[in-house]
Records
---
Amino acid sequence: MTLLQVRHLAVRLRERTLVSDIDLDLASGESLALVGESGSGKSITARAILGILPPGLQASGKVMIDDILVDGKPELTRPLRGSVAAMLMQDPFTMLNPLRRIGPQLADSLPRAARRGEASRRDIAARLEEVGLEPAVAKRFPFQLSGGMRQRAALAASLMRNPKLFIADEPTTALDVTTQREVLRLIGRLKQERGMGFLLITHDLRVAFSVCDAVVVFYAGRIVEAGSAEKIRASSEHPYTQALLAAEPPVTGRAHVLHAVAGSVPRHDDVLNECAFAGRCQWATDACRSGSPVLREIRPGHFSACLLAGDLSARHVQFPQTGPSEAIERSVSQPVLRIEELSKTYRGTRTAAVSAVSLTVGQGEAVGVVGSSGSGKTTLARCVVGLESPSTGKITLVDSDVTSWTRLDAARRRELRRLVQMVFQDPYSSLNPARTIGATLREVLSAMGQPSDSKNVNDLLDLVQLPPSYALRRPTTLSGGERQRVAIARALAGRPSLLVCDEPVSALDVSVQAQILGLLNRLRAELDMSLLFIAHDLAVVRQVCDYVYVMQSGEVVESGLTAAILTDPRHGYTKALIASVPRDDRSWLDG
Amino acid sequence: MSAKLWMGFILRRLGASTAVVLILSFGIFGLLYIAPGSIVLTLLGTRPASRQTIAAVRAEYHLNEPFFLQYLHWLDNAVHGNLGTSIQSGGRVLPSIAARFPLTLEVVLYGSIIAVGAGIPLGIWAALRRGRGTDQVITAGAVAAVGAPSFAVGLLLLLVFAVDFNWFPVYGTGQGFFSTIWHLTLPALALGLASMGLIVRFTRAAMARELSQDYIVFAQARGLSRMQVTSYALRNSLVPVLTASGLILTSTLSATVMVETTFALPGLGTLLVNSVTFKDVPVVQAVALLLTLLITVINLLVDVTYALADPRILFTRQGE
Amino acid sequence: MSVAEVSVLRSSEARQARWPAPLVVVSLIIVVLGFTSAIFSSVIVPNAEQQNLLLGIQQPGWHHLLGTDELGRDVLSLLIAGSRTSVLGPLVIAIGSMVIGNIVGLLSGYFGGWVDSLAMRWVDVMFSLPALLVAIVVTGIAGSSYAVALIVLIVLFSPGDARVVRGAVLDQRHRPYIEAARLSNLSSKRIMTLHLWPNIAPIALANGFLDFAFALVSLASLSFLGLGVGPGSPDWGRTLSNNMGLLQSNAWAAAAPGIAIILMAAAMNVLGDWVYERLEARGLAQ
């Protein structure tokens, strides 16, 4: 019985088309993943199906939910929402009504008669238990719950009327890395128990493979590949899917080359009469650029929109090959950075953000600090560069004591700033929107005592593989990956000995992530620079760092050579972190 | 929410309010010293300046003592209800204030009811129809209203409704409930119009902001009815709107001065203006003190209402 | 002293209106007219105050488009003459308030600590006072002069600007591009002026327009009550007050300045919104 049938769905914003030609099928009890990077149109598609597009967007095409024709029209979908189809959104921190207690919010989904009274209280308590929350949560406000708990509460709220079709939009992206697996497991279990049809939206192919039966890959507002998870994993028939798989950093080893695809996801209307991926594809032919390829069945149940499908299997490396390029021993003779027993407690809080952490980074070494949010890793990084000051402990940079940057005299501080610089997590707010790239770089160059002529600016841009013309552009015209490159270039202006990177790739799409990681590796080698790399993703850390410290709740719980720690973790938390990296099959969730 | 949290919150606010009132009372007292010319002459007003009268004034106002002690004397008197003697009339200040207070209160309340009663629904309507014709008209009207000074509006209202159409009386306050309402309608309208403009704009903005939040989309996605969704947005946006209304009340108090003058109503406003023009300092100080107290109380009530509606505030320290 | 969002009157949120182009153009015309007559009034109507007692009050006609007042003076000419104090005064107040408010807001938001606490206490106390009442009381008692009125209003309006700017600074301060600027050895002064301020300019400038509108109303209110400008001044508020008794004979004598005030304030309001929208669209920091 077809629960969901979509044919030729398109979504437009005034004259711009955002997605086109979307066909989907989902039967009761099945699970389908919509996979794509940001801007690929997967979320818009889901919202169009339910008729909850943002104002100004129009949907067209045929949509049938549970054999009822709705065509994405709000007035037709409204009666079905909640009772037949429901959606869980991405951000648990904004999804719930902040000024309403959990219990009443859940009760709001019920018909008016059932909202009050003892029976409804018991019902709500039962629902909360179903998602792993205690009944007492019903009396709390969302701001009193953690992200994971809020997500569970929202999950319970969306399932109140027992819908047959459940849509989850990136349900774990905003959550702590260790919570992700639990929430996905919970969703999987609920799906099983209730026999729901499940539509999962995610940017992570590995998550898609481990949770869903079938996968649909989105690119630039179109479907480029569709089929069962097994088939696609075994032998993908579209260069983009392969590129995505190849760009995922493996946690099992360091990739020789992380396959990075130059450029970024284009908008639907920018690639109209050609294959959307042709501009970035290494096998693109003229035929690929002369017309938009149609999605066709390559093998039974396996569709691809690539003209070369069927011929590709021999041409590529499916997964990054790993090899012994990792360090097997460590000798730190002259540490560039030495942290001794550093602790930091913020004013007004009782628990320490960082507690007695000791750490060293050698000359030319890349050291990783891994942990989930709240582990103290970011605080640590900020203390090293001077954006925070430690409560106790000592930080030595090359030969100088920089424990308290504010107490250094201005001249000394200026000198030392040339030794260490920082790259931040969010590329979209890392650059001053009011200034051109060139102006920003010139300013930094002159502040670092370097000549600020255009030759130097171009050299910096060249270091991060950006053309000189970028100097005249403003940040808003650049993509996330490009902005991060500029941020790195800025940090390199004074040729620092140590580059502190605070989650430099977490906010980037996978294919872009690979570019930046490759860039950092290259820069480290070329400039003989040390790296202090902060991340929550062990797989990412493995691609860059030889040595890693694992932090939990402010303390270092384990440290050692990356390869050693990842193949033989000792501490429970490290093991949990490793387990939380998605593997690409069912075993990840079951194990 | 726990009683202890509330207690702490209210005590903190009370403490802060008292501090503000004291600081301001100090400033109000100091008004005496900014009058040009000699203080004694100011205090004498139109009375002849002979050695006796000067000595009497010096004694009555403790002018021989240091500044701070004078302030304390004045404060002490004020707290005990002795607000001094009017230089102009020679009568005691407190009774004359008490006599005029009810009228001012009536006009202010009437005007606020109009402002809030019409402003909030209009703002909500504009937000629900945002971007469309209704919204544009309402918002344009609100902008014009905000910029319009109450005396100009009062004048235009007088012109149109009292002089041309003769629907309302031009002057007078009326006896009895209904007559009073009829007489005070034009002043109340003049008073309320500017506030109404602000309330409309603010309500619309708050409501529109809530309607674009994620929790509204999620509510729609899980099947809440249109009424339920609108009431989510409404309830959450009333918090900033209530606050705004409370604060608009305080700016209405100043507009009252203008409106009373335009319509020649014998209220606190005209009293203030007359005594300021005449440099009748004790009266000015008394009225100013009263208004400060009133405003502080209103602000306090606004804070409490805000905390009632948004419990998150109880957990934060003030104003962050 | 309120926990709640005190900057109601200046909340940038209340500013999200998208005005249709014709309205913006009309507002621009009104403002240009207002400023032109303000600056050039002595050239346009050099004899505005000329009395013609024989003429007395006249209804609008060809010679006197808005009629005359009881002293035979042309109402339209007086209106133009009065624009000088009525329009330039608020300009001075808006600029003064913006300068003080922006400086205090920047310093307070950027440095935090005791500077911030002190500044915010000052703002809180000032916000407890209704500006107009304070202006009336102080101007009245200190001897009503135009300069005193301007100074008092500047002092009363600047906390509003300070609060708005401080809010915007706090918004931007922790963003990576500012932190990176700090790490790049740039001086605080440079960061505040070249990095922070351009990104908060939309709000700061739009607020300046709002300041002007409120200053216009406040100043007119003061002169209506006989405070601020001198007795013979053709200031709009003053004229309105003087001519209230003429409602029956030539209503325009009083209505014209009233309408002028309303139009000018509304026009500046609309322009303020438009400026904000334009600057924000240039992609400055959200």
---
Amino acid sequence: MVDLFELLIGKEGDADYKKKPVIIQGITGKFGSFHTQQMLAYGTNIVAGVTPGKGGQKFEQTPIYNTVKEAVDATGAKISVVFVPAKFFLEAAIDALEAGIKLLIAIPEHVPIRDSMKTIELAKKKDAIVIGPNTPGIIIPGVMKIGIMPASPFKPGRIAVLSRSGTLMYEVSYNLSLANFGQSVCLGIGGDPINGTPVIEAFDRIRNGANIDGVVVVGEIGGDAEEMLAQHIIDTKFDKPVVAYIAGRAAPKEKRMGHAGAIIYGNYGSSESKVSMYAKANVPVAKRPAEVAMLLAGKLDIKGRIK
Amino acid sequence: MRLLEYQAKTLFAEYGIPIPKGLTSTEIEQGRKDAAVLGFPFVIKAQMAVGGRGKAGAIQKCQNADEFELKYPEIMQKVVKGEKTKAILLEKMADIKKELYLSLFLNRGKRCYTIIASADGGVEIESVKNQIIREVGLGDVDAKTAEEVAHTMGLKDKSAADFVDILQKLSKITTEKEAELAEINPLAILGDGSVVALDGKVIIDDNAMFRHDELRRFQEVSDLEERAEKSGFSLVELEGNIAVVGNGAGLVMSSLDMLSDHGGKPACFLDVGGGATTDTVYEALTLISKMKKVKGILVNLYGGIVKTTTVATAFIKAYEDKVLDVPVFARMSGAEADKSKEMLKGSRTKMFDTVEEAINAAVMEVNKIG
């Protein structure tokens, strides 16, 4: 299995340690160009953009290529962030994975489920990681951000945040930062029913990270990702503090609440089902985003020692 | 998009899955003509996107014209779990020997399609016993798999052959129409051993609709929802009187939860999308102004990259244009919050530092108005 942190920051002593090259697919679009500037300002090492038909041009200082293959050949990048419209996502994802991209951050919302499933199948064959679709991306505060999150809520530290919602990832991280719980990594799972990296897999990818004292999991109604994670925490005897939040307990059944994945059928996907499984795994669930930091403070002192 | 029973059955018929003879109407005049064509007795079935119709009396047998005159209007008026009857399906009764369950659904945890079949159907899926579960990747079901499922269910002869055919056709619908769920419950074995779909539930992936113009005929959205969709918003109308607006589905859900915890009643869920601009917020306020029940608006925006002054400008404009005539309780974090507060001084938009404070004020004031 490829290691997420190795892909993101590399090993100490690497020439490009904490400066891993990143490609932006859809760099000339309104959304892509804006966020490219934001990422560059944060220190992310963006080395190339891809926009079919605009190869040879430049976006500010960054060279543009027609295909990911050309961009990879020229730069050796293994990370790509996709900003193309949902309709064209599958094509862009295939282009990236076939070119040897090992970490694909899929930003677009409204990607059809079949296209996500096909992307995931191909990624498995290529031993690559897909984050998203419908994700804000990943940030390692103080080091790099690859995605669309604002920089201000995040602060370097030792808490990992996994979130099915973008704005709640910002909101919860902001509250953690205020309480002096900085973050080692914040990863957006995505709001779709099918995720390139589901919650449980994201958890396994970060659990053994060197800089992690605790984990915050921001979930929402729909599916059974939280239930599966709770069982997994029990089965694998994970012994660091985990605190959760679940949005949508006031949502009506069988109504899609903004995210394609946020929908309850019967008891499947309900907040009650998730809270009761988390209780079995000794994971407290905050009633509101601001409470997450308080619950974490009940488990960890500010030096990161378990109370 | 969840198809109504008669719409799902239209798809079934197009793919060659047997269904009982039936006719759909929305007015009793047409219903009478349909009744004459079908002949008594038949079943009157409310068409609504919700389960549990039978128990709620939204499906009833009809023996003669007198009963028809009573039951048709009664069922047309039914509301089950907040869902109104959208149309009425009159359907010939079948000579049922046994009820089966069959579905193909998107298994989110395993990230594949799953067949669920049972020889004990006719009840809600949670209560279906002896479930046979098979994972089938992207949803394609070959003859061998279908035969194995039929065999495990204990089906024989014509029933087994019919079932295999139906399962493969249901798989075709799932993959070609990009369904998240295609369910037949009950799937009935009749007296002569043949198999017929007595009900149908199909949910199409909304995000794939751009590839399926042929399914647009089934789409039914309210004017408000259509306008919201055009602006790239998500809107869910609810029963209460405080509209809830924010950027990002999770944040709006979380605001809805907290509002309910504090005794407030949400009138709608409105997600204006990840970013927020003067135009999107103005358009959101315009949409909400069309909902007569709204007595106040709770706004929860996570600023981040967006400047709060951009959003404040939208409120001011909405009051100036007389789009808004209800109070707004807003929490906006992010850049230039102080300047926004200054801009909104004296207007009916109150700014708060935390969403909890905004909710408290909203609930108090709206309850006061009554």
---
Amino acid sequence: MSPELLPDLTLILLLLIMAWGALYAPQRSDAMTLFIAFGVVVALIWARLDAPDLALAEAAIGAGLTGVLLMHAARALPDELHRRNRTATYWGALAFAVVATLMFLAHLLTDDSLLNAGLLDGETDMTPRLRSLADATMGDSGVEHPVTAVLLNFRAWDTLLELLVLLFALSGLRQLFPRESAPDDHATSRWPESLALMAAWARVLAPLLVVTGGYLLWRGSSAPGGAFQAGSLLAAAAVMLRLTGLLPPLRWSSVWLRLAVVAGALFFLTVAAITGIWGEGWLTYPAAYSGLLIISIEIFATLSIAITLSLLVIGEWEDLRS
Amino acid sequence: MMAAGDVLGSWAFYAGWAFMIAGCGFFATAALGLLRFPDLYSRLHAVTKTDTLGLGLLTLGLALLDPSWRSCLMLLLIWLLVMASGAVNCQLLARYNLEQEEEDNHRVS
Amino acid sequence: MNTLPLVTAIELYLTLGIAVFLLSLHGLMTLHDPIRRLIAVNLMGAGTFLVMVSLARRSEVPDPVLHALVVTGLVVAISATAFALRLIIAATKADRRGGKPEP
């Protein structure tokens, strides 16, 4: 065990403790806070594993937006049921996880077949075949950053479906606000006095977030960044402004809002249909236009992702009723 | 024979590491304070010190180790942003807690 | 017996992903509060992503296909979490109303 593994071991220990706390902390608010911290440490681990796109996305979406989502929704739920499990259950969980993990580690390190196949000695080239194919065609993809090329060119179908998943989640959310129901009590509760400071801070942060989001969107073609990271930063700005009351309710009845929500998926589908009917195939970009197509798809996608994520996180009855 | 640049380079190296270790010392004392202080306000006081001086020493050390303009500017901006957000968060938590306590006192009395 | 190869960071992170997944699976099965179970499901997702990203790190330059899949997974996870939370709130309100239909 070499000393350069020391930061990795520290991160691993930290993550295990936080996972334990996020699940089994006595108070639910503690569990939610530890879950946010868990997301931040996972972002650090992504940075350590040479995945900067993931670190950006995890910090913004996994830690930030999901944390706000949980805490905002938890106001509406009653106090936690205090049916505590017996202490033996917690020890059982720990024992089970430890034993299974050690078994996995032992298998990984000593299995003859793994060693003979050279999976662990770092000498065989582990580059997957898909990666080699991607490398060979990277020049034609229209962008220089490999992850963006994969997301928006080689696996564009997955990204299109992902935009549709966001839409499905939003329409599912809208189903749960019946037409004639009254606003929930928790949505119109009195804001605390201390919120004036947060409003001032939101006024400072929101322009910064917008600029950074735009920068990430633009740089996504040649450096870590892209539509999802930029969209989540914009959503964070919208959430902050909405929570402090600086932004009026995003009313679903406005046609511009609905257009913005579907713009990303709609544009993507249009490109796909055009390439399918008149081009070389479904989502096969013509080589000369692929860079331009990718950046325009990303722009619309960022808009949609930002609005959909903010509606998902803080959408209340005033925002989402028809 | 060492050139003048080498002498300066090694000085920056040692100074940078010294600053970073000092910054980490601040983080350690903040963790100690978080665990041992009796109530919310003193704990906030301990933790917010790291956002300012602790992180400042850390970024100063990092800037000495990589003295290019771009990284120094970015480190400075990061430090300013973390300081500002740390101060705002500390104030928000403390004020909210104070309000809750006053409400509880009103309800009891 | 083969000698134990040098443990690199990749195997450690693989193991960490498995450990987090198992821990949160047990949490999902034994916890009562719906929000904690939602946290457990998210942690299971995080464990899976850890396994995927450490597998991506085996080659010298990390595999972009797995990275792209994990970014997709993150966004899908938050959409599912948001929807699940609304369902929980609606179910809790229905319980409080005693199962009577919406007015």
---
Amino acid sequence: MDLRDSPDEAAFRVRLREWLAANAPAHWDEPGTQRLEGAERLAFLRAWSARLYAAGFIGLTWPREYGGQDAPLTHHLIFLEEMGRSGAPEHVTPIGLGMAGPTILSHGSEAQKARYLRPILTGEEIWCQGFSEPEAGSDLASLRTRAELDGDHYVVTGQKVWSSFAHEADFCILLARSDPAAPRHAGLTYLIVPMRAPGVEVRPLRQITGDAEFNEIFLDGVRVPAENVIGRPGDGWTVAITTLMYERANLAVMLTVRLEIALSRLIDLARTTRRRGRRAADDPLVRDRIAELWTELQALRFTNYRALSTLMTTGVPGPEGSIVKLVWAEANQRLTKLALEIEGPYAMLSGGEHAVQDGLWQRLQLRSRGNSIEGGTSEILRGIVAERILSLPRSR
Amino acid sequence: MLREQARAFLGARYPLQHVAALADGAGFDRSSWPEVAALGWAGISVPEDAGGAGLGFVEECVLGEELGRALFPGPFLATVVLALPALREAPDLVKEVVAGETLATLAWLGPSGEPDPARFPTGAGPADDRSGLYGSAWFVPDLALADLAVVAAEGPAGPGLWAVRLDQGSISIQDLPTVDTTRRLGVLFLEGAEGRALAEGPDAERLLEHLRDRALTFLAAEAVGVASRALEMGVEHARAREQFGRPIGAFQAVSHSLADAYAEIESARSLVRWAAALVAARAPESAPAAAAAKALASEAAVRTCERSIQVHGGVGFTWEHPLHRYYRRAEWIQAFLGWPAELRARIAASLLDDSGGANQRV
């Protein structure tokens, strides 16, 4: 989008850049600096989110009556790009902003909009997502968490997994089976579950990197008011598709910006690392692979641009957008592995004074294995391209 | 508009059977060119006051994609993409080319195939008591069809470009047998040929750089067209062909390979749009963008043809099936003006070497 900012967009980009340069905390989460943990981190991010909101940069495309800015989509995309490039901390509730909020705006009741939207923007309330289950991953519609109507409440019992932010969340957007007799896509209901309600238990899930970015959520007879249903009971699948569509559109731009930052870090690493008597940046094999990653990055940027241009003219993102996550996952996996190769034997070190950048690339490389699994495995994404875009016969 | 017009014309006048017959026979018939020029294609990027259609390079690349889809066997690349922009200072020649009366090509490569001004294949006198142009230029596209060549040579005032009529006695040509017979190549020998100066010195160098970026981007657009059609053929076959009681496209080993082809083609298409916009604006980032577009698009085209041949099974391996013609064009595109790794070496130089180049930003 850099290529074609309109005068209005360019002015917005400049205002945002200047504001971030003056206000964003520097090096707040860089390797080698003291990283905030737990409640301290949460308080810091809440305060930062409130400042972003007060400056008018949050909820750009949301209606003014719910605290938004009524700005065009391009401003939101510029926001994602500039935030990524500046290295500023993210807003405290990305699930609230990117998934729960847009879903409530599309399918929520007036009371839900009035109750939930503004505290998302200000960062006062944090959201998580309860879709995946241990037995329902790629086949999401096979989920088993039950929601049984009991008077004016649903009683929710089951287990959710891969839920970021669940340990600090106030609410969860949760998909549960309300009618076991109905066809599997028809018996689902989409609920707002208060995370402090009795019967909710959150356990951190330690992942391949050793960090606990995700959680398991155990629900045991949790009573959720019937007014917390988003959309109609039994319409949960349709509502969930809306959530996932917004996730994908936001994600495409964010992932591309993250790849841009990772590539520029990789280039710094190649320039400053000496291997076999020369800079890694002078090794023809390294050069070829960096140029290839740069090429893929530019392709992702303009694929996003094409998909979003279609979104702005037709209301539906262009089909080419569905390849972004697929292409990105593989590019990021190759990028992080190349960094380790450039480090040579230091790739074995996870931290300490001799490790390169305190083991940053080691964490990123291990983390990258999740890229082709989370948010739709690469196999599922290829299936979507094959069946919905190329109109090949169903494989199941 | 342009895309629909091109698809309709090419479908009616250059169906695949006709292209195959030309490819297996004497090649493109030069008497068919005025009909193509009459569509406004020969002067697509030439301003209206100079007799052209007044569109730009972005539209030229849209046309390039359609020409690639159809495997158009005429000298569009040689005449319109490569030679015409070098004739700007010779309005009378531009007029002839735009009208379709004159077919032109560009002779700028030595035996190494690189458009490198430091290694011009030919020299221009007066030097050693010789006058005129001497030497040989290699890999000249559609040389046998051309009436005029723009020749890059080292002249008395440094590098320069000359317009050379090819009906002179001091000129001979040698046809090079090509894998893709819809786009033939030749070697041009000059023994004191007369030329008309078009550009000299730094002007000529800048022009050659621009021609290289144009050519890379246009070839990338063509490659996207080639790949798109090869993928369509693969998908059509996978839907229709049944084995083990179901269409083979229901097997994920088949469908996922085609999905990967789609992802590669759309990535390449995005790069072509970006590079075309930059080249049209003569932006400083044109060179790495054009290199990236051609590297990725030619790889996508070659791989898509390979996937499609594989999906077709035995029939994809026959001479009768048109896929091999797409494959040959894809391989031609990949080898002309630099293989993907050579192009990436150029991109790497702009990213990694402290040359103070225009493109330091990732």
